[in-house]
Amino acid sequence: MALKDDYYVMEPDFHNTSLLDLNEIIYPKGNADPAVSSLVLTRAAYIHNPIKLTIIKEQQSPTMTDFMYFQSAYPILHKRLLEILLPLKLRKTQHFPVLIKDRKKVEHKDYFMWYIYNVVDCLDPNKSNVDRSPSGSYSVFELQLDNTKLNKVPLEHRLVFRLGHSVVLLLVHKSLVEKFTQKKVSGVKFYPVNTWRVGNTK
Length: 202
Prior knowledge:
Residues 49-194 form the Immunity MXAN-0049 protein domain. The chain is mainly beta.
């Protein structure tokens, strides 16, 4: 099996989780730290206080799932998953405490932002369905990875990463997907790279 077949695209389970955002009405002056509103997907962040988020989109019967998402690009995880992540010492990832208020204004403290700024350039643009912008970034609709590029990166440096030229896409190695699956995590979907299509909802 080629290395490229070992990867999954990680996305929110939009049918079963809630989306989060900053809300100064519910959390007045909640995020005084300017770093929260100026996060960059490709470099480390320096946040000194808990990030305060509110639920902006809930299901009819909302639950606090293991995975939730801030602005779709930043996974918010329940702290029970730290026992998976911390021993791996994943490259270029950070963990920031998060406070979440639901629509009943109940505050949940057992969450953290899984901040991933590890970028690996392994897209095969000739075999993928992409639009290239003048800046050199890609809008990716169907994805294929370049096995030669992956081979140049040690496995421990590509267990989880953002895709070069399209950093909103988060890719996860099958070994980590298996750990999450064993925990029966909720609120997230993992799609094999070779079958992923933009807009997957199943």
